[in-house]
């Protein structure tokens, strides 16, 4: 079951930049509710309330019980507009949903149990190809995240989507049946690291010898000729 949070809002009659500025002076933000074959509704809500939810990082995967003048609406944030400098929320588009609604959602991927992975223990490096996944699922069954257990993976292993157990009723939006999520690559060779300074020293030795020979030649040239 998708997690939920609650926000109170009120209807607003007009749209436009002037209205948005007036709302912000009152500590409010503009938004809209659309979808479910119903007329879109313009709303306004507390800027602080929405900013707090946005900072929690879950607005695109958690449902919202949006109370508009006493009427409860089950919605999901689909677009959040941010200020280009401050990154503060400026506007939110909410989609009406129901238990029958099917959505494309972007779900974060979390890699867990690093300390139990043989590859990590051998100082292998986890290289991540995908930090999130595009999935199709019901609105009321959106997973908060997808967890990938690193326990069985060794150095040179590739972790693919087939290694992940998806939530019931969810499927990948990508047509590729089995793509790579991450891999554990070998650690850097200590021998290679030690060879680099040695090679630099070896390259410097002939140069130093050439400088010494040149200096000796110059000194000999400057010395006065012996008298006969």
TrEMBL record:
GO terms for molecular function: 5S rRNA binding; structural constituent of ribosome. Residues 103-188 form the Large ribosomal subunit protein bL25 beta domain. Keywords: Ribonucleoprotein, Ribosomal protein, RNA-binding, rRNA-binding. One of its GO terms (biological process) is translation. InterPro entries: Rbsml_bL25/Gln-tRNA_synth_N, Ribosomal_bL25/Gln-tRNA_synth, Ribosomal_bL25_b-dom, Ribosomal_bL25_C, Ribosomal_bL25_long, Ribosomal_L25_dom, Ribosomal_uL5_bac-type. Gene3D superfamilies: Ribosomal protein L25, beta domain, Ribosomal Protein L25, Chain P. One of its GO terms (cellular component) is cytosolic large ribosomal subunit. Residues 8-94 form the Large ribosomal subunit protein bL25 L25 domain. It comes from the Bacteria. Part of the 50S ribosomal subunit; part of the 5S rRNA/L5/L18/L25 subcomplex. Contacts the 5S rRNA. Binds to the 5S rRNA independently of L5 and L18. This is one of the proteins that binds to the 5S RNA in the ribosome where it forms part of the central protuberance. Belongs to the bacterial ribosomal protein bL25 family. CTC subfamily. This is Large ribosomal subunit protein bL25. It comes from Micavibrio aeruginosavorus. The gene is rplY.
């Amino acid at each position: 079951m998708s997690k939920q949070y609650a926000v109170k809002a009120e209807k607003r009659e007009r749209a436009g930049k002037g209205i948005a500025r007036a709302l912000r002076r009152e500590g409010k933000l503009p938004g809209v509710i659309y979808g479910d074959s119903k007329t879109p509704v313009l709303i306004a809500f507390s800027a602080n309330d929405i900013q707090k939810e946005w900072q929690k990082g879950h607005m695109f995967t958690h449902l919202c019980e949006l109370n508009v003048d006493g009427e409860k609406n089950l919605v999901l944030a689909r677009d959040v507009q941010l200020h280009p400098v401050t990154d503060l929320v400026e506007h939110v588009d909410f989609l009406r949903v129901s238990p029958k609604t099917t959505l494309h959602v972007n779900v974060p991927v979390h890699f867990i149990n690093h300390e139990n992975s043989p590859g990590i223990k051998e100082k292998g490096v986890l290289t991540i190809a995908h930090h999130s996944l595009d999935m199709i699922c019901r609105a009321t069954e959106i997973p908060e995240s997808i967890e990938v257990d690193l326990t069985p993976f060794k150095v040179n292993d590739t972790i693919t989507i087939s290694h992940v157990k998806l939530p019931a009723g969810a499927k990948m939006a990508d047509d590729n049946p089995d793509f790579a999520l991450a891999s554990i690559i070998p650690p850097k060779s200590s021998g290679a690291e030690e060879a680099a300074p040695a090679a630099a020293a070896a390259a410097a030795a002939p140069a130093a010898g050439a400088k010494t020979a040149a200096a000796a030649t110059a000194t000999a040239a400057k010395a006065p000729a012996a008298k006969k």
